[in-house]
Design goal:
It is built from 5 helices and 9 strands. With 176 residues, it is an alpha/beta fold. It has one domain. The longest helix has 23 residues. The radius of gyration is 17 Å and the shape is globular.
C-alpha cells in the first residue's frame, strides 16, 4: 500500500504573495535587492492587532505560493536551503504521493490547523480514489513549527522541531 506524504514547512517556510507578487520569499536574490525592500516587505506583512483565530481581513490577506524552495536568508539572523531538495528526495521515494502544505504563518495555529485538516482530507480522498488504495493513510513530514498541527497523528516525522512544547501549546489552544 502507498500512503500519501504531506510536507509541512516551519514558520516562515511558505512563500506569501499579494497581487501575484512575492512578498515573502527571502531568497538570496531577493535579499540582494536591498534591505530597504525588506523593510517595506515586513511592513506589508503586518497583520492588524485584532485578527484573532480566523483568516486575515481582505486588505491584509496573502496568497500562499507554496514552500520556499531556494536558498533563503533572514538578514543577520539565519539562512537555509529551502525545501527543494527535501521535496525532490521525497518525490523520488514516493513519486506522485507528495503534497506540500504551505500556509500563511502570520495567522493563528488554530486557523492553520483547520485549513490543514480540510486540505489533507481532500488530498487523501483524491489519493485513495486515484490510486485505488482505499486503506491509504497520511504520513506527515514536518519541519520546526510545522510539527504543531499533526501532533495527534500516528505517523509524523518531525525535523528540527520544538514538537513537545509546540504541540502541547497547540493542543491547549485547540481545546479552548
Amino acid at each position: 500500500m502507498r500512503d500519501l506524504v504531506v510536507v509541512i514547512p516551519g514558520i516562515t517556510g511558505s512563500v506569501l504573495r499579494r497581487d501575484g507578487r512575492d512578498l515573502w520569499d527571502l531568497s538570496l536574490s531577493a535579499v540582494g535587492r536591498g534591505l530597504a525592500a525588506f523593510t517595506r516587505t515586513v511592513g506589508a506583512l503586518r497583520l492588524p492587532d485584532d485578527v484573532g483565530g480566523g483568516p486575515a481581513p481582505t486588505h491584509a490577506a496573502m496568497e500562499v505560493g507554496g514552500l520556499i524552495r531556494g536558498w533563503h536568508l533572514w538578514p543577520a539572523i539565519a539562512g537555509g536551503p529551502g525545501y527543494r531538495d527535501l521535496l525532490a528526495r521525497l518525490d523520488a521515494l514516493a513519486a506522485g504521493a507528495v503534497r506540500a502544505f504551505g500556509y500563511d504563518w502570520r495567522l493563528s495555529n488554530r486557523h492553520t490547523a483547520r485549513l490543514l485538516a480540510t486540505r489533507v482530507e481532500q488530498w487523501l480522498h483524491e489519493w485513495r480514489r486515484d490510486t485505488a488504495q482505499p486503506e491509504a493513510k497520511v504520513v506527515f513530514v514536518c519541519h520546526s513549527m510545522g510539527a504543531s498541527w499533526p501532533a495527534t497523528t500516528s505517523r509524523c516525522s518531525a525535523a528540527g522541531s520544538t514538537r513537545a512544547g509546540s504541540s502541547r501549546s497547540a493542543r491547549r489552544t485547540a481545546a479552548r
